[in-house]
Each structure stands twice: as structure tokens, then as C-alpha cells.
Design goal:
Number of strands: 51
Distance between the termini: 67 Å
Shape: elongated
Number of domains: 3
Strand order of the largest sheet: 9-10-13-16-19-22-25-28-31-34-37-40-43-46
Helix content: under 10%
Structural class: mainly beta
Number of helices: 2
Largest sheet: 14 strands, parallel
Radius of gyration: 29 Å
């Protein structure tokens, strides 16, 4: 820059404090400018990349650029001081308008199909028949909802939405809490072909100023979809470090009464949201909720200073149906990452209230104080393809626990490591009394999981890999375990003949020094079928009070197991049998897919441990 003459006013410098993200589906852009000369004004110009920029013209600060087409855009802004001198080096912003939802999120509008499952590469285009409205909490007045005249009151804006309408939240802090209720006509319900959508842009953050109502969004209406929203519950005025006692989402029917079931909080999508630092549960799915999907969210640090309670990432309660929790990152809460419960959570309720038809898959769960997945009294729950680790902060931290009156539960193809216990089944106790729950879990399948007690501390051996106790119809097959003191524990504390027999077959134990099995039923020796152990010595365990020795079925060092997908004892029947065709990715080591199919000849046991 050339030196200025004595008395000459310095040339201004220009800064862009807020601008669109590198890629956005919003067909408008919001900017905030700044300069080192407070009295300076601004001039702007913008165009699609590759096109000639027009001449500079005066522009407002903040600036909203509406009606943008898809493509790469360039904006230049310069400050102009009181003498008319302009910044010779304008500030530049570049961004892409895709007119598409970010990859990995669910389709916004899909005729007749509420929640299609999309891969990470799928991109959903915005439909032309959607009406977009905008809200800016920093707007001077409550406008008509246009990009140049946005709403500034959230509750008012939501009341204006009809089916096929979309509300886009511009950057700013939002402090309101809202009940989208079904007992008045202020709010509308969406439809299958035209849901109502609430979509956040980067920089739009909810910081609730009140704990009443108990959620930022209490949803009691069908066909609402929430995407890209951020919730910050940190409370700077808290004396004990607790965040605001508010859920991000609470779905329910406030008029719901048993036994007359009515699902009004139905067909709801919560996708790609970020919520943290609260002192209630992050998302609470309550009675009257049906067909809800929670996907691609990051949920962390929900905690309370009350040592008698704990807060969870996601809680699913009784009288809910057809729910999916998929592809989420949940961690650092002082309770469970995901909890599914029933009547035992509300002892005054009738005994037949359950969550039903729940899928928990593809989630990354770690470092919560209690458990990753806690399944209480519920029906038809499928837990699969999850990555679960670091549940060793307390002595009963468990990867998956199934108890109370849980029925028809499947735990399959999960990768569970660095947990105090891997998968546990037990009866549970009546809250407040300590008396065993009157019924027990039944029809439980634990299949093709990989369980490593301490992958980061190989010299540390955790207590239990798979612990099955006080249940009926338990099937434990085709699992791989290592670094557990007792990889498989089966107990039957009541010793009742009314229990159906367990099935424990074709599990691979990679623990040469471990007490491989522990069975607390003297007449249950026949449940062991096809126990595969990588050990140089005979397999030891206990059945009842008697120690048993079993001949090693596979006698090889453990190291090749960690580097190859073959095991064989050199015999014609076992050599080059493929034990692992597929497994979830994990940090280290990696199991490779050899592509070699299981030979299928009998009596060779099926050792396709992770085959699917």
C-alpha cells in the first residue's frame, strides 16, 4: 500500500464476519461485514463463478442475497470511507449452492414413503412444490417470511406453516421453546406427500432462555421433519455446572390415555441435528409416538449434578411403535447413549406397556457413564451394525444390556470393545424396592458380534464378554470374543425347569488363558455346541460346580487371527475355512475379507463368525 500524505485519511480495510458455508442447499446467502473505520459504508458485487463481475454498488450490512440458482458463486465487498476512498483489496467470499440436502441425510419429500434409507453418497433434491419461508432472530421486525423480510419470532413462524412448507432458520441465537400441540388449531399437521419442514443453516443455534415447556420442540403432530438444527444448552449462570434442563425434542401425545391408544406424534424425522450440554435427556420419545426416525445426529454431554438420576442421549418410552435410531454419534452422557424402556420406568402403569418395533443400527456410541444400549421391557428390538466402545468408566458399564420383560431382541453384527462387560442379559429389579422383576427376558439372540474386552490395553482382561442369565430362549451363536476373563457366562439362578434351553453354538474364543465358559446349571452341558477356541492348551470352564476340560478344536497362535481371516488346524476338514467374511470397520487391527466361502461339508461346524 502506498504511503499516505500528512493528514490523509487511511484507506479502509474490509472483513467478512459471516457468510454461507462452502456448500449449501439454501438458495439465498446471508453476510455480515466489518471494517476498521466505523463510519465507512459498503459496496458489493456478486456473480456466478466464471462470469464477469458487475460494477460495485452500495449494499446493506447485514446483506441478504436472494433467489440464487445452483452453482458456484463469488461475492466481493469493499468498505468506503467518508472521503469516498474505497478499500483497494475487497474481501471475497465463495460458496456453492447445490439446491440439495447434504449427503447422508434423509429425503425431505418422498411421495408416500416417509423415511427412505439412503447411503452416504445419496443426495436428495428439493422439490419445486415446496414453499420456503425464512426466519432471522436478529431481524428488526417480524416480517412476512420472505428472504428479504424474514420472520423474527419462531412460534409465530411455525404457526404460519402449511403442508409442503419449509422454514429455513438463518444464523442467529433462538431462545424460544415451542409446543406443536394437537389440541388447538394454531399449528397444522403435514401429510405423507407434503410434510412440514424446519431446516437450520450453519450459525443458527437454539439457546433456550426458559425450562418451560420442557423441550425446545415438543411435537404432538404428524409429518413434521427437523434437519440441521443445533441446540446449545450450556448455562453460564449455573452454580453446579448443569446445563439448561430442557430436551431438544420431546415427541408425545398429551391427550394420550391407556388403553385407548392414539398415535398423533407420528411420521416424524429428526435428522442431522447437533445437541449438547443439557441436564435433561437429549431426545425423549414418549407415549403416542409412532414411525419416528432419529438419524445422523450428534448428541453429547447430557448430565445432571443429582447423583440419584442420570441423563441419556436418546430415551424411548412405553406405548411407542416403529422407531429407528440410526447413524448417530452419541457420547459423554452420564446415563446411557440409548435407552428403551417400558412399564418398569413408571411402576404405576399397567404391566403391558412397551416400546415395540425399534431398530438401533449404524450408530457410533462411546464413553457414556452407564451403558451404550439399555433395553428394558420392550418388544421386537433389533440392535445391529453399531460401533460401541469405552464403557469402562464404572464397574458395570455394559455395551448392551437386556433386562426386565424384554422379548424378541436381536443383537447382531456389532463391534463392541473396551467395555467392562460386552452383552448382558438379566432379569432386573423393581425400581425403588430391589425386588426381582416378576418376569424375565425371553427370545434373545446374540449373533455374529465381535467383542474385544480391551483393545487399547491388551494386557487388561475384562470380566465378562457375553453374560446370559435368568432368561429363556437365549441363542448365542457365531460370535468372536477376546480379552475377557470369562468370554461366555450362562447362569440360571432360579434353576427352574420351566425355562427353555439355551443355545450356545459355534462361537470363537481367542483367549488362551481365559476361563472360556461358565455355566451355572449342572444339567446344561449339552448347550455347548461348536465352541471354537484359539488356544495352545485344552479349554477349561465350569459347569455347575465342576470344572470341565474340553479338547481344543482349533490350535493356532492368536496373532494370525488379527491379521488374516483364516483359521485351520491343518486337517482336511478345517484347513482354509473362512471365519470372517464381513465385520464393521474399527480402529485396529482390521479383519480382511478373503472372499473364500465356507466349504459347507459336514460335520465341519459353521465358523462363518461374522458372515451375514
Amino acid at each position: 500500500m502506498a504511503p499516505k500524505a500528512l493528514g490523509q485519511q487511511a484507506l479502509p480495510e474490509t472483513f467478512i464476519d459471516a457468510q454461507p458455508p462452502a456448500s449449501t442447499f439454501v438458495p439465498a446467502a446471508y453476510f455480515v461485514f466489518d471494517t476498521d473505520q466505523p463510519l465507512a459504508t459498503f459496496e458489493c458485487r456478486y456473480a456466478l463463478a466464471g462470469n464477469a463481475l458487475p460494477a460495485f454498488t452500495p449494499c446493506t450490512n447485514p446483506l441478504v442475497v436472494p433467489d440464487l440458482s445452483a452453482g458456484d458463486w463469488v461475492l466481493e465487498v469493499r468498505a468506503v470511507n467518508g472521503t469516498g476512498a474505497a478499500d483497494p483489496s475487497p474481501a471475497v467470499a465463495t460458496w456453492e449452492v447445490t439446491l440439495a440436502v447434504p449427503a447422508g441425510t434423509a429425503t425431505l419429500l418422498q411421495d408416500g414413503v416417509p423415511f427412505p434409507t439412503l447411503g452416504v453418497e445419496d443426495v436428495a433434491q428439493l422439490n419445486d412444490d415446496v414453499n420456503s419461508f425464512y426466519i432471522n432472530p436478529n431481524a428488526a421486525s417480524n416480517g412476512t417470511g420472505g428472504i428479504l423480510d424474514p420472520f423474527n419470532q419462531l412460534d409465530y413462524a411455525l404457526q404460519q406453516l402449511n403442508p409442503a412448507d419449509r422454514l429455513i432458520l438463518l444464523p442467529g441465537e433462538y431462545s424460544e421453546t415451542v409446543i406443536l400441540t394437537n389440541d388447538n388449531s394454531m399449528y397444522k399437521a403435514g401429510t405423507a406427500n407434503h410434510p412440514i419442514q424446519v431446516i437450520g443453516t450453519p450459525g443458527a443455534v437454539f439457546k433456550p432462555g426458559s425450562s418451560s415447556p420442557e423441550a425446545v420442540f415438543q411435537v404432538e403432530l404428524p409429518w413434521w421433519q427437523f434437519q440441521g438444527l443445533e441446540f446449545d444448552f450450556y448455562d453460564p449462570d449455573s452454580s453446579n455446572g448443569e446445563g439448561k434442563p430442557v430436551h431438544a425434542f420431546l415427541t408425545k401425545n398429551s391427550l394420550f390415555s391407556s388403553p385407548t391408544f392414539e398415535y398423533t406424534a407420528a411420521d416424524i424425522l429428526i435428522d442431522s441435528c447437533k445437541l449438547y450440554d443439557g441436564s435433561k435427556n437429549g431426545i425423549s420419545v414418549s407415549q403416542g409416538t409412532k414411525n419416528l426416525k432419529i438419524s445422523n445426529c450428534e448428541i453429547y454431554h447430557f448430565r445432571t449434578a443429582n447423583t440419584n438420576t442420570e441423563k441419556h442421549g436418546v430415551v424411548i418410552r412405553a406405548d411407542t411403535e416403529s422407531l429407528s435410531v440410526e447413524g448417530n454419534l452419541i457420547y459423554g452422557n452420564d446415563g446411557d447413549a440409548i435407552q428403551v424402556n417400558g412399564s418398569e420406568a413408571n411402576p404405576g402403569n399397567v404391566a403391558d406397556q412397551f416400546a415395540t418395533d425399534v431398530s438401533i443400527f449404524g450408530n457410533h456410541l462411546h464413553s457414556d457413564i452407564e451403558n451404550a444400549v439399555d433395553i428394558k421391557s420392550s418388544r421386537d428390538v433389533d440392535i445391529f451394525d453399531n460401533l460401541i466402545h469405552q464403557y469402562n468408566l464404572v464397574e458395570d458399564g455394559e455395551g448392551v444390556v437386556i433386562h426386565y420383560d424384554a422379548q424378541d431382541i436381536s443383537v447382531r453384527r456389532n463391534h463392541i470393545f473396551d467395555c467392562f462387560k460386552g452383552v448382558v442379559i438379566n432379569r432386573g429389579k423393581t425400581p425403588g424396592t430391589g425386588v426381582p422383576w416378576p418376569t424375565h427376558p425371553s427370545d434373545i439372540t446374540i449373533e455374529r458380534n465381535f467383542l474385544d474386552g480391551s483393545v487399547n490395553e491388551p494386557t487388561l482382561v475384562r470380566p465378562r464378554g457375553i453374560q446370559v442369565g435368568d432368561c429363556s430362549l437365549a441363542t448365542v451363536v457365531h460370535n468372536i470374543t477376546l480379552h475377557w476373563l470369562v468370554p461366555i457366562t450362562i447362569t440360571d439362578p432360579d434353576q427352574t425347569t420351566s425355562y427353555n434351553p439355551y443355545i450356545c453354538a459355534n462361537n470363537l474364543i481367542v483367549d488362551p488363558e481365559a476361563l472360556v465358559f461358565e455355566i451355572d446349571s449342572a444339567d446344561a452341558e449339552d448347550i455347548l455346541d461348536g465352541l471354537l477356541v484359539a488356544s495352545p492348551t485344552a479349554v477349561s470352564g465350569t459347569i455347575g460346580n465342576e470344572t470341565k476340560l474340553y479338547t481344543t478344536w482349533i490350535s493356532v497362535p492368536t496373532t494370525p487371527f488379527l491379521n488374516d481371516s483364516y483359521f485351520g488346524d491343518g486337517s482336511a476338514t478345517m484347513q482354509n475355512s473362512n471365519i470372517c467374511d464381513w465385520i464393521l470397520p474399527w480402529p485396529s487391527p482390521t479383519l480382511k475379507d478373503s472372499g473364500v466361502a465356507y466349504p459347507g461339508s459336514t460335520p465341519v461346524p459353521d465358523i462363518g463368525i461374522c458372515e451375514h
